[in-house]
User: What shape does this take?
Amino acid sequence: MAAERFPVESSHVLMFARAIGDENPIYADPEVGAKSTFGACLAPPTFVQASAQFDPTYPLRPRPGVTWFGSGATPSVAMTEAAERAKEAEATGEAAPSSGGGGRGSGLHAEQHFTYHRPLLVGEVLTVSTRAGETWEKQGRKGGLLRFSESITEYRGADGSLVVTARAVGVLTAQPVKEA
Assistant: This one.
């Protein structure tokens, strides 16, 4: 997930660099950035993941007055729905696919790849678009079917040129894994 418009703000870059423990001055010191080959401070690798915080529909983003996933106030909707589907499936003897958010099956973020077409500069505003990529299935080691899907997010500069391409791969189990 990503916002359609993503400002690469200096304070956001600084906080991100601190969070990942990278003290390279190219991320925070305007004098170092100005003297660099790029003429500006840069954002650290993987910084584009922070664009989700600019997406008003991002499910992990807190919103005033709304119980959000991770708040601890109530179970998340995804986990509650997955648990309900698992109960229904158990009652009927069928297997319920997982939503990736909990329940008796499981889903996970399997891979993340970034292709940088040029450095990401502090101060620029990127436009963002996301599209579905390939999907495929594979037999899991424990006998269950695994469903893979990729999502391609492109980050473009003001001139429309491609800056970063992010490719995420998620995987869902087709049925809960039976406990031994």
